[in-house]
Amino acid sequence: MSGTRLSSVRRIEFAVDWPPGHVAAYLLDLDEPVLVDAGMRSDYDGGDEHPDDTLDAALAETGYELADIEHLVVTHPHVDHVGQAPRIIEAADPTVYAPVGVRERFDRDVDALAERVRDNASAAGIAGDQLDEAVEMAVESLRRDRSLLPPDAVDEWLDSGPVELGPLSAEAVHVPGHQADHLAFLTDLDGERALLAGDMALEPFRAVLLHDGLDDGYVDAVDGFYAALDRLADLEVDRVYPGHGPVHDQFDEVVERDRDRLDAQLDRIEGKLSEGLRTVPGVAMALAGDRGVRYMIPEAMSALAHLERTGRATVTVEDGVRYYDPA
């Protein structure tokens, strides 16, 4: 819950309108205050900025103000993790740390991204208004997220391996799949091996395969997620501080469960091919059921590319559209 005190770690929750209804940032109450992720802003859909006071109120309960944040660490550049970054940067001028891959990603030419997404989505059988929406979503996400985390505001671009986050020594672990540049941070907090996990090792569910959306990296998303799970499985973790769901100590079980659920999703999609569903939109709609399909499209697209690459599906191209069949 918002305001939960975890010794030197304070969890701050921001409301979002998708399950489980919140995103969490973490204030590390050290010699120099460190904020891990920047939470959501209330106008994430692109209107005028009218941020709520969630962050300010939580800081005040600990005796801090926004201007007291000395270090801001970003696990990955999704809107619910960088939403309040502009306010923090303006008020506090903290040292800002972000995954190094974000620098190149945010330098991407918008028109080039739109062209690649349109080509990839068209080849996947996405057409009409749905195609235009997919392209616009990719373009707007790039514009929005790099406005929330301007590259010239980042002081330290982090690669995997040992890192110094102000007063905190940590190991940065590259965990792609949900987002291509995602880093989790393993460190010692309150006498425990703690994982500041972002959107990995979530207790309620496996994070969706978004990676880089419908850009060219979709073909590597499943392999990236498995590689992330392999890296996590090699860690010794006592407690997980995730971006969604509760803080938990079920790290090994959750990592293995996510692997099982990814395996099961690939099996499910392979089964949909046997049922006669042959395109990305068809498979995505079957997976989504009565839920929104927009976030199932990149997962279905990435999974089908993986099944093709591993010989579990065959592809026929007809009029520029890729049709999948069971191998």
Structure overview:
Helices cover 37% and strands 22% of the residues. By secondary structure, the chain is an alpha/beta fold. It has a single domain (5-108, 144-271), classed as Ribonuclease Z/Hydroxyacylglutathione hydrolase-like (Metallo-beta-lactamase, Chain A), CATH 3.60.15. Strands 1-2-3-4-5-6-7 form a seven-stranded mixed sheet. Strands 8-9-10-11-12 form a five-stranded mixed sheet. Strand 3 (22-28) and strand 4 form a beta hairpin. Helix 8 (251-274) packs across helix 10 (296-309). The longest helix has 24 residues, at 251-274. The radius of gyration is 20 Å and the shape is globular. The model is unreliable at 1-5 and 46-50 (pLDDT under 50).
Q: DSSP strand (E) fraction?
A: 15-25%
On the 0 to 100 scale, the average pLDDT is: 94
**Tally of domains:** 1
Beta strands, count: 14
Structural descriptors:
single chain, 10 helices, globular, 5-stranded mixed sheet, 327 residues, Metallo-beta-lactamase, Chain A, 7-stranded mixed sheet
In short:
The protein is of the alpha/beta class and 327 residues long.
